[in-house]
Amino acid sequence: MPARTDVAAEFASAVAEPMRLRLLGALGDGPKTAAALAAAVQTDARSVARHARPLQRLGLVEASGGPPHQRVYTAVRYPTLYDDAWDRLPVPARRAAAASALTHWHASAATAVDDGGFDRRDMHLTRTTFEFDEAGWRRAAAILMDALHRLSELADEPVEQPTVRATGMMLLFDAPRDASPPERDEPHGEFSHAEGLERAIDLAESLQEAVTREATPWPELVALADELRVVARAAMVEQSRTAPQSAVNR
After folding, report:
1. What are phi and psi of 72, to 5 degrees?
2. How far apart, in whole angstroms, are the C-alpha atoms of residue 223 and residue 230?
3. pTM of this prediction exceeds 0.70
4. Which residue ranges of the chain lie beneath pLDDT 50?
């Protein structure tokens, strides 16, 4: 597993370039050929080589020799931009870095849903809104940073087989009051065919209503689509469990 490292402020702007973050994210599951990496980030092998060079100079990525389309890339270390480095980034660079990271995280989490990554009873998935003053905000940020350090220390401890490949994502952001999609009941548990179909119809109607507005509410559409995915998958799992028994009853 690639190590985590603080990147000095003078290197922060190079690492925060969106394509380079996407490359690092795509290498999180292990080494990739230039062709596979290009497909993962939706570019070509020459672009991969161009953006990988600064990451190689920082010691974050290693690449085998040969022409661009034949290279194999490996993530050696992941950069962690702590407060001092983040503070020195210009606002456009911060926003570009955040947008790139969120895009990759969303794709990673959505894939994990389909692959059963959230099937464990002890998985953690929450979205909570707080009211903080400035001092409270800083304490909350410090709590998350402390949790990151403690998890990193835990990951460095000796492990026994079999292992669990865990992914943790932590977010703390200033959410404008009018930017959040309307609160909805979180899908949970299992749905019968009839229950899943009814929920899917409700979500489809909500999607139809959202896309016909004068200003398309993209965050709401994303939330609705994600909920529909979870409902459909839960209903499909339940159907696969009950189908053999139904066959016996007939």
Report:
1. -115, 125
2. 11
3. no
4. 1, 9-10, 182, 185-188, 245-250
